[in-house]
Amino acid sequence: MTDSHDYPDNRPDTSIPRRTMARTAKLASLPLGIAGRAVGGWGRRLAGQSAEDVNATLSAKAAEQLFEVLGTLKGGAMKFGQALSVFEAAVPEEFAAPYRDALTRLQSAAPPMSSRQTRRVLAEQLGRSWTQRFAEFDDEPAAAASIGQVHRAIWHDGRHVAVKVQYPGADEALRSDLRQLQRFSRLFQSLLPGTEVKPLLAELAKRMDEELDYRTEADNQRRFAKAFHGDDQVFVPKVVASAPKVIVSEWVSGTPYSKIITSGGAEQRNEAGRLLAEFHYSSPARVRLLHSDPHPGNFMLLDDGRLCVIDFGAVANLPDGAPRALGVMMRLALEGRSEELFESLRAEGFVRPEVGLDADDVYAWLSPLVAPLAAETFHFTRRWAQSQAIRMSDLRSQDFHTGRSLNLPPQWLLIHRVTAGAIGILCQLEAEIPVRAIVERWQPGFAD
């Protein structure tokens, strides 16, 4: 291999902008731009255009701006966009259509950094003689994400590998973005009704340091790869080498879930959904970990029919496996045992002692969410996700007031978000799967 100075690269510097003022200005352009278009739309309404046409135009332009700002900023802005994208299925159709393409693009695309920058990071992390560890290295990134991009290479022993390189300045940008995004949480909530924006941002901020240290991600990936080694349904690439800002693992080619969502046949979508559900529910038992970054860019369907899982930067440690109380509450809700369900929720901290809630109201709020477990198979659809979002966000409904009165204990926050994200992908896939059998096999407390 040749050194970086033998590779002319005239592309502009695309590392993450580090100055808080510059990044804040870009993020601030979202509410300002949307407000400006709203005023313009009001003027067009006065000029005789229909409300439907004006709203469609405004939504489409807002979606483009959302993608432009969140995508080009990388860092926490793009991380937020990727996390938000899995909840697209729950957004009512009149809002979702303009945002679907923009949010889906955030699952797997970001502007690349230059080869000079990439090689500088590799030299800092793997040593000045890093080129000797590779037989070949492709300077063009094969994929780009929120805080790093992936290059295809051949290791010195002939293995084809994926080299993930963290963007320079990712740590500063991630912290700055998440602070600014929290300021605009109400805006995003209004743009995408039915999503829980504020808790999502809080969780991303909490897990920030873990995602920035690729050594932690490598350790997580090694544990998953060991647990699923030789499995006939799930494949996790092995880690070849790692450093704080670089991770090298086996290269894998497959069909991304984002492609299956947009163009897969019913049989392929059903199988992709079944494999995802099996992985989600079995991981706490098999690895004592829960993959906590559920968006379609992290899952592929291999030619041999296995699910390939990548990106283990966000992982929940569950040393005792999935909580038994979760399975118990699911079963009580399914069987209509509202009083026992209420007491279980109170014992786990979902119902605070000082809050006056009715057991039947809590059951009415929760029971539709366990409907997928009532039959042998369940068809997860966008329509179903949207109906749940509308039901729980209608200010006039009892369900809205019940949901607002319930508490989400800290120890349940990540499990809740990851499960909701996985269900979001199932609804995007429109998958019909035997979810009850999967839960019975893997979730403690459900089949007791």
How many domains, in number, for the residues? 3
Helix content range: 40-55%
The overall strand count is 13
> Please, what is the oligomeric state?
single chain
Short précis:
Residues 105-330 form the ABC1 atypical kinase-like domain. This protein is 54% helix and 12% strand.
How would the blueprint of this fold be written?
Layout: H1 20-46, H2 51-73, H3 75-85, H4 93-105, H5 115-126, E1 134-144, E2 148-155, E3 160-166, H6 170-183, H7 185-191, H8 197-206, H9 208-212, H10 214-227, E4 234-235, E5 239-243, E6 246-250, E7 255-256, H11 257-263, H12 266-286, E8 289-291, E9 299-301, E10 307-309, E11 315-317, H13 324-334, H14 338-348, H15 359-366, E12 378-379, H16 382-393, H17 398-405, H18 410-429, E13 432-433, H19 435-442
Parallel strand pairs: 4-10
Antiparallel strand pairs: 1-2, 2-3, 3-6, 5-6, 7-9, 8-11, 9-10, 12-13
GO molecular function: ATP binding; kinase activity
Family: Belongs to the protein kinase superfamily. ADCK protein kinase family.
Keywords: ATP-binding, Kinase, Nucleotide-binding, Transferase
